[in-house]
Amino acid sequence: MSRVLIQMSMSLDGYVAGPNDSEVSRLHEWAFSEDEVGRKVLAESQNTVGASIAGRRTYDLSIPWWGPDGPGGSSRTPTFIVSHTQAQEMHEGGVYTFVDSPIRALELATAAAGKKDVDVFSASIGQQLLGAGRVDEIHVHLVPVLLGGGTRLFEKIGDDQIHLALIGVEEGSKATHLRYAVMAGK
């Protein structure tokens, strides 16, 4: 059975992007550097994820790097973009499907993933799915930098506490990789 994962790189002060969407590449150095732990964590994710969900802002900022193959690269993982409008320019043969709600994106991504995981890597969409009780795990790639502002990962999750259980920690040279299970009924 597939799991729904929020998987994000985050600064020590809780930001997934700096002011005006800056510093995003700094937050992802762990995945593309000589950090063996980071490369292992990335490879494991690419092997277990069967579909991805992102928001329109993430798509617009990332499409120059993703290209038509999407965030999964050569594995061409189906990627569902939550947006009220279609992108102006679409890559022919791309892996992207635009949908108008996080729940619809989750339904389609779960079907596309089969037994593999669904990866959510958009702060806003992750917050909405977490608040709706639809997230199984949170994977944070904690980068040792203080951005001082920008987009927070857990800004709008509601008033109820969400309890987590630590299920894994891996220390790399560029990030500490934390995995938490979302506790049901807490």
- Beta-strand proportion: 25-35%
CATH topology: Dihydrofolate Reductase, subunit A
Whole-number mean pLDDT: 89
Detail the poorly predicted runs.
none
> What is the general shape?
globular
Fraction in helix: 25-40%
Q: Give me the number of helical elements.
A: 6
Describe the sheet with the most strands.
Answer: 8 strands, mixed
Q: What is the C-alpha radius of gyration, as a whole number of Å? A: 15 Å
Q: How many domains would you count in the coordinates?
A: 1
| CATH architectural designation | 3-Layer(aba) Sandwich
**Structural class label:** alpha/beta
The helix/strand series, from N terminus to C terminus, equals EEHHHEHEEHEHEEEE
**CATH homologous superfamily annotation:** Dihydrofolate Reductase, subunit A
What distance lies between the first and last C-alpha atoms, to the nearest angstrom?
A: 22 Å
Instruction: Supply the CATH class.
Output: Alpha Beta
Number-wise, the strands total 10
Q: Please list the strands of the largest sheet in the order they lie side by side.
A: 5-4-3-6-1-7-10-9
Give a short summary of the structure:
The chain has helices spanning 24-27, 29-32, 36-48, 56-66, 102-113, 123-131; strands at residues 4-11, 15-17, 49-55, 79-82, 96-99, 117-120, 137-143, 151-152, 164-171, 176-182. It has 186 residues and is an alpha/beta fold. The chain has a single domain (4-182), classed as Dihydrofolate Reductase, subunit A (3-Layer(aba) Sandwich).
